[in-house]
Design brief:
Strand 1 (about 60-65) and strand 2 form a beta hairpin. Helix content is about 35%, strand content about 25%. It is elongated and about 85 Å long. The chain is an alpha+beta fold. It folds into two domains: about 1-45; about 45-95.
């Protein structure tokens, strides 16, 4: 067997060390994802009030949550603010802007 020149021998060991480092890094990242991801799903996510009922003909386009209220943006350009129990507290019309 022919011995490698000193420069190639050093390069060979550098590649081996780099490979082991990358394997250790991948294992660390996977371990962190596996241990931390369940915490993301168990966080208290906001929920719609059970008795929230949209007015007749209204269709929800977006929903956002605040402290003690829920806002629903409808497809007919209105914002409906509901209280914690689902009662309609406020209604605002959105003026349509210029369309491009």
């Amino acid at each position: 067997m022919v011995a490698l020149p000193p420069g190639l021998r050093l390069l060979k060991w550098l590649v081996i060390v780099l490979t082991l480092t990358m394997i250790g890094g991948v294992i660390t990242v996977v371990a962190l994802i596996v241990t931390r991801m369940p915490q993301a799903f168990t966080a208290d996510a906001p929920a719609l009030p059970e008795k929230l009922v949209l007015p007749v003909g209204a269709k929800a386009a977006a929903v956002t949550f605040g402290t003690g209220w829920t806002a629903v943006v409808t497809t007919d350009d209105r914002i409906l603010i509901f209280g914690r129990g689902g009662e309609l507290r406020q209604e605002m019309a959105i003026e349509p802007g210029e369309t491009p």
